[in-house]
Amino acid sequence: MALPTLFLTNSSTILNHVGRYLKHACWKCGNKQPIAILCSGCGALQPISRPTNYFKLMGISEAYDIDLKKLKQRYNMLQAKIHPDVIGKEVRTPNAPPGLLRLAESLSSEVNHAHDVLKDDMRRAEYMASLYNVSASAASPTLLIDQMVLRDQIASFHHKKNAKKLSEMRHALTKRFSDCSELFGKALVERDSNQMASLLCEMRFLTSTLDELKGRMNTLDIEE
Question: Are residues 159 and 199 in the same domain?
Answer without folding.
Answer: yes
